[in-house]
Amino acid sequence: MRGDATTGARTGAARAVLWLVVAALAVRQMAVVLRQPPGERLTDLETWTGENGVLHVTGSLYDTDRFTGTPFAGLVLKPLTRTAEQSLGVAWTFGSLLLVAALGVIAARALPGPVNRRTALFAAPVAITLLMLSLPVRNALYLGQTSILPVLLVLVGCFVVRGERASGVLIGIAAALQPTVLLFAALLWLTGRRRAAVTGGAAFAACTALAWTAMPHDSWTYWVHHVAGAGLGDQADSLANQSLHGALLRFGLEGPLEIALFVVLAAAVCFVGLRRAARYARDGQLLLAVAVTGCVAVAVSPTAWQHQLLWVLLAVVGRVGTRASDRMVWPAVVVLVITLPGKMLLPNIEAVFPVRDNVLLIAALGAACLAPFLPRTSPYWQQPVPTDYAAPVPARWIRVPLLPFWRRVLSRPNLLLELLLIRVVYSAYQHVRLAATAGRATAEHHGRQIHAAEQWLHIDMEHWANHAVVKVGWLRDFFDYYYSTFHFIVPLTILGVLYVRSPADYRWVRSSLGFATLLALVGFWLYPLAPPRLMPGLGFIDTVHGVQDFAKPDYGTLTGVTNQYAAMPSLHFGWSLWCGVVIVMLAPKIWMKLLGVLHPLLTVSAIIATGNHWVLDAVGGAAVVALGFGLTYALSGRRGLQEPAVKAAKAGRLPAAEEPPGAGRPPLPAVEGEAVAGKP
Q1: From CA 532, how far away is CA 527, in angstroms rounded?
Q2: What gap in Å lies between CA 533 and CA 523, rounded to an integer?
Q3: Predicted TM-score (pTM) of this structure
Q4: What is residue 369's predicted lDDT score, i.e. its pLDDT?
Q5: Residues 93-124: pLDDT tens digits?
Q6: Which of 174, 237, 438, 536 could form a disulfide with 550 if both were Cys (CB 3.0 to 4.6 A apart)?
Q7: Rounded Cα gap, residues 160 and 6, in angstroms
């Protein structure tokens, strides 16, 4: 009983923390919007409702191409114009946040069962948090768009109201606001709810006819001249348009060929996506069916702007993978794609631009047509193949590891997630590193402090080493090349080799490198430091970046693209020391270990000889690496594994005696009373 009480208290505390996170995000969103000057916040809403806004003008809504909604949307918004003017900011933003909260609660309650108690308790705050962090919601709040409303109307129609007529009416109104939502009437028809489908189509037709009667010219402009709004607002080939039509235009296709290809692809996506959605609906996964249909609507819409892509996030509820270790891959990919811009997910390499520029469309197409979501009748739905955990060597101190649940996994981590993790962490590192500056004066003041400390310690060798290397051409070229090249190549090579050859060690060393990098960011933020090459009056020669113009406020070749004052600690030396330690620990041959020792020695020589770091910067780099290894040890214990686990890791599986129950395919019967996937 005591254990149950403790578990319940922990669950309650965790739930309270999640709701506090939701409240903090809501306050932050309000503050972000309200801090903007009146002319820069809710720009779309102000364009519609301002003193000379679209909704005030007696002419067409589409004269300026600023209003991109349907005529029915304009008809609904016009009576709210004066209210929106008076409450532009607080009330509108607060109301939008309430819609987001309602959306999260409904989605949480619509999760396909069976749902355990912990999931039921945490689902609502987690859903609202993800919604608030998503790019579509942030974009809608910033612009003052109404794109949250159609999604909410569909979810209310599918999961809240009772009766075919009410559901159809709500979906019809949502379609009148966002035309491709009419595809949900097709979903209703395919799942046997034909009365609701007909009612939805009739409601859409009635709302559209009402708008046509009240605003015939605008209706003609929207539905005929612009073909359901295509061409309104931004250019259809802009990166903001994440539909098939926008992607084809960005690939250079134009005219009748592009239109024909778009129609063919859209028809194929509708056919495949709606059939999949109907199958998941019959399987009892109605929320997933709604998400798949919404993703189809995104792909086949002539224009799908960022604030209209909320359907992609709902696809996070789909379960993909038969192994427990793979079960989080799909949700993680969806959350990353819908919350982070493409530039953070993929590097600035021209070969990946087609993927980076269309990442949200690719996610929508994946959810609609490709992702192999499990049916509830699958034996792996509730019982995926368990993950094989290693038995660690007992730690030296009783309090290590501090997180006993952080167990070492024998299997190789998912490559896609690892690549995304490395890319996102490095992109965040770049952003924080760039932002962590207090200005040139502070950085130079800290540089003088470091120089004075080194003089007192009699280790101020930077000037001598810099000028000695400059006099020897081949040595200067060698250190310049070593400084510029091996900083990334060696760590990535080590991670790649360990990922393939020793997955358990890979996880341990990857964590230590990550912790060291995070600690270095704290140093960059708290102690901006000018390197020797950017210290005026000391006579250093920048052999890598060229001559610096100290007369300019922002000098240095790379000042515009990176923070030149992120010198303490030196991650050039820190990462090389990490490489040396890992090679010495894990390399099987003595000559490999010697190369591991040589790499940090050459790196510290290069950073000092080229004038890019002080000696104490290298000391700082060594300190954060030591702390990174120490923190990894404190959280997860020693690197070593017990002998059976080591053999299992090399064999790629646990020994038969230690193989967890159910590790093979569990021969579970189909769930009684449930339909087989794809059959009613």
Answers
A1: 15
A2: 20
A3: 0.77
A4: 93
A5: 777 888 888 999 999 888 887 777 777 788 88
A6: 536
A7: 35
